[in-house]
């Protein structure tokens, strides 16, 4: 009995894990067209095979964040338009270097022609990327690059975006007549490159001013814990708080809402809750990334590279939209 | 009808390979203390487990208060008024006395515990037995003897009329035994029936009315205590012919190999002094609780000791941990081979090489496979260990072969003294002989052999000298010529006289 | 020494098993508060104390749940995932327009299911608690992810304002509702543990499961009840988080089972079972909360916070094990052996 139950449990565990890491999208089914889809480019073959269908994998950091979901949507859209892509989204259930390496390996084993990758970190997966590269797989970075040469990187210039956020806050404070005081930062952790850069950019906007930015509180992007951290900042008397990602921003928004909105909050990423908080006036602005653009353009770049066409830019800043109450 | 509280008739119980009880009968009257006696393995605790519902009998009848009872289980036994107090106490040490007494039968009012009432009731029960304990004391803070009294009180509070007590005095001081016996006498006088199991034959005379003796799973006899003597009881417990053959070799005793002086380790190893010579096998006899295993473990360094000087070939050696002992050449083949002697999930080869890795590894710590295989092959050959393949798990071997692996791993390293603790327990007859031959081999080679055994025949069959232990001390040293079963048992039951005589007018 | 009733009762309360550690850690807690208060003037402000109490409340709840399980001699690793599951289920249902209170009910029901599953796996199927709750931890987290198709949810909407106020934002008699919720639940569960048969059996099972069994205690039922309590507490915390954020996040509650163990152990609940009182869990949870809060104000980097808490937990567990080991050594020396 005991063995039987253990077996069932293990099987369920396995199925759940597999289920969660199963890709959301299957290959695009566009019917077989005899003609090539018009890509506007009848360029030369740079020695690359023009295949019927290219196998392209998207590998992100995890599957949960809406951010990645949007990247996937963008990529899928491009794949559908292009028509010659067999597209799959692979991602581990949680952000984990070993699991991402596994995903990349799976993609290689699955016969990938190109991989769109949001690398966990600059060095975390370079070894596997070398392997992929030696198999002739084209690599395009979306959102987070790794330290390995690739076709192109499409990302938010996080540092610039962070600076923009800072500037927005400064302006708002100036309008209120506040020129000095304490500022709080609630972010994810010290190892996620993107959020670290955003913080850096944010802090740079405040250089030379009379504002003091307090020690950053890391809450792993957990909305509830971020709210606690922000509430503590408010008790300390900050005049503004910055949130480094979606969860952090939700947290600071809720904290500001609770005290009636005296504090200026600026954050990152877009979600229904964040938009609502902006609408209600509790958050000043959020830097909405354009993950769909990353996915869309990234897919296009990948296919271009596969078809042997030249790719002009190394890095594409997919930019941020500053979303405020309109 | 009968005025017996309990009648067991022709009860039989077998376990795989062993007939534990063979047509055993027992009768218990109200108002009497019946001592159930017999050697280790005679069947006493099996019989009691059947009565208390833990085991089911294969054959026979059980009658309680004149009624035939089928299908006893622990709950039913309790309802019938049978309570058993095990040697290992069953108390929840974090709870109070009252809480333990009422465990499983808590008194509640509207769902809320009535602690006050339970404390009160508990105090009443304790008072009935003249036990002076505050019912709100945490059991874990009580001495073992007081815990035992709490268990007795618990049994009484369930209105048990029949009490079975298994080795109740093994952990008590003389004063505590006094108090316990007062309680037992009171219970008896109140009409309870008590079955008393103990090896401490000398205490019987203060408490016991009748005596019943089992041997090898069979009922031998029973009589009133006053109609018999200790000597007679012992001879009934032990009386059988030595039927097994023991290969004995003659060898002249040579130099002194080891001397142990002043070994003390807790209450089970007290003031041990003995010597071991080349060319002899020394057997250590005694009953359970005598401290034999503890002594070998203290000697080997497996347990800490308070004092003890050990001399090997004339030189003093310091043994604080097993590795000290092993390095000096004293090795131990433990009592529980599956638990302490082998890594059952490892291969036979791994087991043999494990304590010998220092001989098999290069400077860098890499194991030399070739040497490992050689050592394994040699050991298997020398001891004729029957196996299919030395990479198989150790647990796949039969008991006898397992034991050979346990011994073999030590022999690979030229040990000087080999200590065996119950070397043939659970091994079939043929394999036993092989082990005896092995011991003789060692004796012949001048390696010291010390062995602990509970089987009287084995001790008498193989030893050249016998040390009898009781209550942590060596009570007698015997040469094989002067040793008999009766003498051994006599000295094995020589506990420090713990009971103060209470002369009643 | 006079032995009048009130001084006897006083003595009894303080000599009750477990109070020793509770008193020690309470002193530690007070010292911490003084230090942090000294380092930071804002610490004692009404706003901060209110916030602080509200931050401690969920930790008390998961601490109570884990304490129940620890006292039976087991562990519950699924607490964090049940928190997440409850958060996601309630939020998802609310975003789809369901009446918030109905959503609350469904969250509780699903958590109860996990609690029963835990109890039965451990007591009937005899799986080690570590393995069983590891399994349900994964299952519950999986449910949290699937329930809204692998996304975090949208905002739960204006209809849920009442819900949000009840569980988080509202105040009653000057204290946040969250605090009252934790307090009431603590009172109820403490009562059960100390004054009812079930509670007594929970201690017995943890103290000596064999003795309990031989005394007629229903082991399976007792263990399952402990896990049920844990599940209900976790579910409540999940709802609190939904109320806090106004949305459901799939990784809510991540790691909470360990905070729960820490709170319990610091407060004197033994990981070996049979011992500890819920009063200690409150103190343990408070120490945790005060550290989180105070270290932020002190400007300490998060890494320091983790190290400090880790050290405190290790010391508490060490003390627990060392004290128990000493008691066992003296015990086995006086017991008969071969």
UniProtKB/TrEMBL annotation, chain A:
Q: What is its main location?
A: other
Q: Which GO terms describe its cellular component?
A: cell envelope
Domain (Periplasmic binding protein): residue spans on this chain: 58-309
The answer, when asked if Kinase is one of the entry's keywords, is no
Where are the annotated segments for Disordered?
Answer: 24-48
Q: Name one GO molecular function term.
A: carbohydrate binding
Which family does the record claim for this protein? Belongs to the bacterial solute-binding protein 2 family.
For this entry, the protein name equals ABC transporter substrate-binding protein
Organism in which the protein naturally occurs: Paratissierella segnis
Organism placement in taxonomy: Bacteria, Bacillati, Bacillota, Tissierellia, Tissierellales
UniProtKB/TrEMBL annotation, chain B:
Q: Where in the cell is it found?
A: Cell membrane
From the UniProt record, which GO molecular function terms apply? Answer: ATP binding; ATP hydrolysis activity
Look up and give the organism this protein is from.
Paratissierella segnis
Tell me the membrane topology, using the record's own terms: Peripheral membrane protein
**Is Repeat tagged as a keyword?**
yes
Coiled-coil regions listed: none
Q: Which GO terms describe its cellular component?
A: plasma membrane
Q: InterPro entries of this UniProt entry?
A: AAA+_ATPase, ABC_carbohydrate_import_ATPase, ABC_transporter-like_ATP-bd, ABC_transporter-like_CS, P-loop_NTPase
Q: Which domain of life is it from?
A: Bacteria
Entries under CDD domains matching the protein: ABC_Carb_Monos_I, ABC_Carb_Monos_II
Which keywords are on file for this protein?
ATP-binding, Cell membrane, Membrane, Nucleotide-binding, Repeat, Sugar transport, Translocase, Transport
| ABC transporter domain sequence ranges | 6-241, 244-496
List, alphabetically, the SMART domains matched. AAA
Protein's UniProt keywords contain Phosphoprotein: no
Name the Pfam families on file: ABC_tran
This one is known as Sugar ABC transporter ATP-binding protein
């Amino acid at each position: 009995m005991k063995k039987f139950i253990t077996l069932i449990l293990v099987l369920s565990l396995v199925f759940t894990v597999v289920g969660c890491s199963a890709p959301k999208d299957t290959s695009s089914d566009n019917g077989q067209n005899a003609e090539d889809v018009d890509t506007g480019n009848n360029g030369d073959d740079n020695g690359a095979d023009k295949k019927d269908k290219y196998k392209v994998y998207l590998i992100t950091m995890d599957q949960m964040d809406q951010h990645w979901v949007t990247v996937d949507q963008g990529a899928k859209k491009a794949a559908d338009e292009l028509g010659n892509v067999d597209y799959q989204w692979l991602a581990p259930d949680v952000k984990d270097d070993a699991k991402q390496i596994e995903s990349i390996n799976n993609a290689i084993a699955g016969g990938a022609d190109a991989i769109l990758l949001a690398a966990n970190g600059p060095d975390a997966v370079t070894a596997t990327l070398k392997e992929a590269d030696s198999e002739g797989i084209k690599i395009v970075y979306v959102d987070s690059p790794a330290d390995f040469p690739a076709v192109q990187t499409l990302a938010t210039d996080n540092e610039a975006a962070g600076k923009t956020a800072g500037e927005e806050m400064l302006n708002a404070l100036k309008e209120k007549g506040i020129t000095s005081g304490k500022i709080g930062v609630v972010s994810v952790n010290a190892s996620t490159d993107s959020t670290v850069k955003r913080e850096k950019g944010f802090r740079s906007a405040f250089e030379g001013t009379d504002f003091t930015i307090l020690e950053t509180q890391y809450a792993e992007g957990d909305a509830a814990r971020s709210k606690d951290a922000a509430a503590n900042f408010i008790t300390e008397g900050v005049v503004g708080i910055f949130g480094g990602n979606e969860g952090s921003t939700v947290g600071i928004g809720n904290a500001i809402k609770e005290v009636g909105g005296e504090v200026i909050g600026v954050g990152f990423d877009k979600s229904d809750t964040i938009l609502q908080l902006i609408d209600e006036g509790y958050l000043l602005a959020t830097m909405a990334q354009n993950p769909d653009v990353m996915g869309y353009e990234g897919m296009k770049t990948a296919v271009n590279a596969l078809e042997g066409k030249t790719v002009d830019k190394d890095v594409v800043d997919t930019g941020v939209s500053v979303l405020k109450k309109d | 009808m009968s005025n017996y509280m309990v009648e067991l008739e022709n009860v039989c119980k077998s376990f795989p390979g062993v007939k534990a009880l063979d047509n055993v009968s027992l009768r218990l009257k109200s108002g009497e203390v019946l001592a159930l006696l017999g050697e280790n393995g005679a069947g006493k605790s099996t019989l009691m487990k059947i009565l208390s519902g833990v085991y089911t009998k294969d054959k026979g009848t059980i009658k309680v208060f004149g009624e035939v009872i089928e299908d006893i289980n622990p709950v039913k036994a309790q309802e019938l008024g049978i309570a058993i107090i095990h040697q290992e106490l069953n108390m929840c040490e974090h709870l109070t006395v009252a809480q333990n007494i009422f465990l499983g039968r808590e008194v509640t009012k509207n769902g809320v515990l009535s602690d006050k009432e339970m404390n009160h009731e508990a105090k009443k029960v304790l008072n009935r037995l003249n036990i002076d304990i505050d019912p709100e004391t945490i059991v874990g803070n009580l001495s073992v003897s007081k815990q035992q009294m709490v268990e007795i009180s618990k049994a009484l509070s369930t209105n048990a009329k029949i009490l079975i007590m298994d080795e109740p005095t093994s952990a008590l001081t003389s004063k505590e035994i006094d108090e316990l016996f007062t309680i037992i006498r009171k219970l008896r006088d109140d009409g309870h029936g008590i079955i008393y199991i103990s090896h401490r034959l000398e205490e019987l005379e203060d408490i016991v009315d009748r005596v019943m003796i089992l041997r090898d799973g069979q009922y031998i006899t029973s009589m009133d205590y006053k109609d018999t003597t200790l000597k007679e009881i012992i001879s009934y417990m032990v009386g059988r012919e030595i039927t097994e053959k023991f290969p004995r070799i003659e060898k002249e005793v040579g130099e002194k190999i080891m001397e142990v002086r002043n070994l003390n380790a807790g209450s089970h190893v007290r003031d041990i002094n003995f010597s071991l010579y080349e060319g002899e096998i020394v057997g250590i006899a005694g009953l359970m609780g005598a401290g034999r295993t503890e002594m070998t473990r203290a000697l080997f360094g497996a347990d800490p000791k308070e004092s003890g000087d050990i001399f090997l070939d004339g030189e003093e050696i310091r043994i604080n941990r097993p590795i000290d002992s092993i390095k000096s050449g004293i090795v131990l083949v433990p009592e529980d081979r599956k638990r302490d002697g082998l890594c059952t999930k490892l291969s036979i080869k791994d087991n043999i090489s494990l304590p010998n890795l220092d001989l098999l590894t290069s400077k860098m710590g890499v194991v030399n496979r070739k040497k490992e295989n050689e050592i394994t092959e040699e050991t298997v050959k020398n001891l004729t260990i029957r196996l299919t393949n030395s990479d198989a798990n150790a647990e796949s071997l039969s008991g006898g072969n397992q034991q050979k692996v346990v011994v073999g791993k030590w022999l690979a390293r030229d040990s000087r003294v080999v200590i065996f603790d119950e070397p043939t327990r659970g091994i079939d007859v043929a394999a036993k002989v092989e082990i005896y031959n092995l011991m003789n081999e060692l004796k012949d080679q001048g390696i010291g052999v010390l062995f602990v055994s509970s089987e009287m025949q084995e001790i008498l069959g193989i030893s050249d000298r016998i040390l009898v232990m009781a209550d942590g001390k060596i009570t007698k040293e015997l040469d094989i010529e002067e040793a008999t079963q009766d003498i051994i048992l006599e000295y094995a039951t020589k506990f420090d006289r713990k009971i103060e005589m209470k002369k009643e007018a | 020494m006079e032995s009048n009733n009130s001084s006897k009762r006083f003595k009894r309360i303080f000599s009750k098993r477990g109070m020793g550690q509770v008193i020690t850690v309470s002193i530690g807690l007070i010292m911490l508060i003084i230090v942090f208060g000294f380092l930071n003037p804002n610490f004692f402000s009404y706003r901060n104390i209110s916030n602080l109490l509200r931050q401690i409340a969920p930790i008390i709840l998961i601490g109570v749940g884990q304490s129940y399980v620890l006292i039976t001699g087991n562990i519950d690793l699924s607490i964090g995932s049940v928190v997440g599951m409850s958060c996601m289920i309630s939020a998802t249902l609310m975003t789809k327009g369901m009446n918030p209170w109905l959503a609350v009910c469904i969250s509780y029901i699903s958590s109860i299911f996990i609690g029963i599953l835990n109890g039965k796996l451990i007591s009937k199927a005899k799986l080690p608690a570590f393995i069983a709750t590891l399994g349900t931890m994964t299952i519950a987290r999986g449910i949290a992810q699937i329930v809204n198709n692998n996304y975090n949810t949208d905002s739960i909407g204006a209809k849920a304002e009442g819900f949000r106020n009840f569980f988080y934002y509202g105040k009653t008699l000057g204290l946040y509702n969250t605090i009252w919720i934790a307090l009431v639940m603590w009172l109820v569960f403490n009562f059960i543990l100390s004054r009812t048969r079930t509670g007594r059996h929970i201690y017995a099972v943890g103290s000596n499961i064999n003795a309990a069994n031989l005394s007629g205690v229903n082991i399976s039922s007792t263990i399952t009840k402990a896990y049920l309590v844990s599940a209900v507490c976790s579910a409540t915390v999940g709802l609190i988080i939904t109320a806090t954020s106004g949305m459901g996040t799939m990784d809510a509650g991540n790691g909470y089972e360990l905070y729960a163990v820490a709170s319990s152990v610091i407060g004197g609940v033994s990981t070996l079972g049979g011992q500890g009182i819920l009063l200690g869990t409150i103190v343990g949870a408070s120490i945790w909360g005060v550290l989180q809060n105070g270290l932020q104000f002190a400007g300490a980097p998060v890494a320091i916070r983790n190290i400090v808490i880790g050290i405190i937990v290790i010391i508490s567990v060490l003390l627990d094990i060392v004290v128990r080991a000493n008691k066992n050594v003296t015990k086995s020396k006086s017991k008969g052996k071969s």
